[in-house]
Amino acid sequence: MKKIIVVGNGMVGYKFCEKFVAQPESKNFKVTVFGEEPRPAYDRVHLSEFFENQDAKALEMAPAEWYVDNGIELVVGERVSDIHRSTKTITTAKDREFSYDYLVLATGSSAFVPPIKGVEKEGVFVYRTIEDLEGMLAYADKIKKINPNAKAAVLGGGLLGLEAGKAVMDMGLEPHIVEFAPKLMPRQLDSRSSQVLQLKLESIGLNIHLSKATNQILGDKAITGMEFGEDDVLNVEMLVISAGIRPRDELGKTCDLEMGVRGGIVVNNKMQTSDESIYAIGEIALYNQMIYGLVAPGYEMASVAVDQIIGKAETLMASEIDMSTKLKLIGVDVASFGEPFMPASKGHSVIFEDKTKHLYKRINVSHDGKSLLGGILVGDASDYNMLHQVYLNGMAIPENSAELILPASEGGKSFGSVMDLPDTAQVCSCESISKGAICCSITENGSNNLNDVIAATKATTGCGGCKPMVVDLVNETLKSLGKEVKETLCEHFSFNRQELYDLIKINKVPDYEEALNLFGEGHGCEVCKPALASIFSTITMETANRQPTIQDTNDRFLANIQRNGTYSVVPRVAGGEITPDQLITIGVVAKKYDLYTKITGGQRIDLFGAQIHELPLIWKELIDAGFESGHAYGKSLRTVKSCVGSTWCRYGMHESVTFAIEIENRYRGLRSPHKLKGGVSGCIRECAEARGKDFGLIAVDGGWNLYVCGNGGATPKHAILLAERLDDETVVKYLDRFLMYYIRTAGPLVRTAPWLDKLDGGIDYLKKVVIEDSLGIAEDLELEMQGLVNKYECEWKQAIENPEMMKRFKHFVNSDDTDDNLVFVPMREQKMPKAWS
Amino acid sequence: MQDILKQYETVSETNVKTWFRVGEVNDFPQNSGACIKYKTKQIAVYNFTRTDKWYACQNLCPHKMEMVLSLGMIGDKEGIPKVACPMHKKNFSLEDGSNLGGDDLKIATYPVKIENGNVYIGFSD
User: Fold this and answer.
1) A73 closest CA partner among A33, A102, A125, A101
2) Which CATH number does the domain A2-109+247-310 belong to among 1.20.120.530, 3.90.79.10, 3.30.70.3450, 3.50.50.60?
């Protein structure tokens, strides 16, 4: 078995592994990967997202288990220090030695730090790794405590610099961008588009300083400012250097591979270095005398190296590499493709500019007006995908080429359909997926929807920029096959949950049987019955007592069925606040019925081991003592967990318990597509774990921060910030809107986190609906929720007061005997069901 | 615990020795199930009101040996009447007791007849 060693576990190094294991020949090789960073490869392109969620895992290209599952040995936190070409071995910084048959260098690049005096001072950072970001965050916190209006500068006005500017702004520092060139993004934009971008960025609060050469960094130990000229000083308390990258090519130098004059390891079109057993890919590879600092060419290089190593010698790197890019910078679209700056000798340019709207579009057209050579888009890059394809495939353009970029109101026309593209058109450049491959996945390989296509082809999984085009291609292809793509509840209803919700509501359908008569067929099943039960409940707030036989077994008996067919009982303890007398009552009841008791994760008490006929007796006693159902058995609001808050805690900022109780009591009994959990923390220490809940509140200076769509469970997810510094009333208003919108639109048994994942436009869209009322339904949602809140009643109280409803709490129809198969065994002074045979 | 399982064997209408009365039609919920006792056996009885058909099977789910099938939701899979066990949602055909999910588990079924508003289950003992 041949051994491959991959040095570097960044995006390109990971991509090499991914492409490699996808090849059947890979089983003849043993792959070992060394990464210097302490974690597996992550998505550096989206590094600034780390500031939103500070969740390093979310950025991972693949979890550590992925490497294990694919037979790859991943060694993190261990740098390769030397290559010994004569013996084909490497040594690591921990002085371990490994041999290789093929060596793949993917060490990437490091931030270039210009030799400015004082650059070593405290508070000066580079912007490259998660560790860099963590360092910046900690330092920002420190300086904000001393000066709440602290300023930070970013040295470099290129792509990464502007990203870093956003990061600095998100940290609550006053952001300043310092650029040596007379314009922003000098490599991608012409002067006019750069000015448009500058105006836009300044309008959102970035301060921009152009044509500034930094002489020295001021300050004693820590940075206090930057000096440009004699009297030209900018006072800042932090500096992020983002002045370009340098290939990390030390390994190549020390083992005498052929190097570029200004760095980089020279490779041929097989990605081979001057030693044919050693390959170099990504930002250390010098190809065509160029270092390509973009992900797409890096991935392409990884692909070529994989094919070369497994023996597909015909795969070579293209001689011309497309450097087109599209990105969203601080919410502003910026794109350039082909030749963005074209000399007048080659053709002419058509420019559309609207400075009031911060829009700039330029296309470069050949002299004969027949082909598109390149262009720049700032402010609105929605035409990028199509223009880029027209450019790449040399497609014909309209006689009046201005139509390509003019707004519709001024004679612009939407140009062509995605289906007009040639099959060879590369739609996803990160993964090199052609239009043909995407369509083929549907027409020949059985993909039936967007998710299937993504899973089969990996299109859109890189930068995601091609997603709109892939969506169009999938829809158009499905349409051309006469396929209607439809998500249905089950074989008995050919509607999805949202459609049934509307049908039942609009037609005032009285019950499940009638819904089945009107819109369904057959007898129903365990999927549609509880789904419709939930719909009925969220339209009319009916309890599970009205249609018990369509409820899931738990709801039918208003208790959680447990391992041996007995049930558990959970009274509501709103916000987790409980009096000594209530504790005693629960204790007395548990003792009387010999129930196993345990504190739940939701700050209440669960009583296990009740038989069906005992349930009403137990509940009668609890209700007489003032308890009510905790709905622990329902797809409904469970608990709103709280920390003790400002009432007792010396750190508490607001009364988290009081507010948790108010919210839990507001939404108690509310049924929803899946269970709902909430949390309220009295300060950012977050003891209530509110960000692990479907909705969470964290007290901050000036109000509550509202987070939504988190959960624990098998796929834990942190809730995402929806709105900041809200007063109590606004929190309730937003929660009403959010919850009702979720209840109306989610699929059955879809919790809020996966619902948000699937929601087109994601959290930004949700913010628009909830905060800006973009759909004009906010008032309706609030009224509907208030209606449900007003109609709440305890379903256990309802059940024990109605003899007809009580009939179902009996084991046998024809006997008063109880189930004699139940066997309990003692455990730690309580009892448990006897283990399964 | 396997002993409990052994006492349940499918009875066809031709093998019935005893038609045991288990109650009136109204004692059983519509489009749902309930449990009855016959000697040491627990039997789940289902009333499919939409087609006016009745089915009976062992109450014991053979998967984890729990007396729960009468509590499961009923319905049909491509026209075959079925019950979904409340524990792990295994689907059993009420016509022949087979597991519609595919594995070997099987439940015993019993014939049901309705006479003068009374419900009878057929047993071979």
Assistant:
1) A33
2) 3.50.50.60
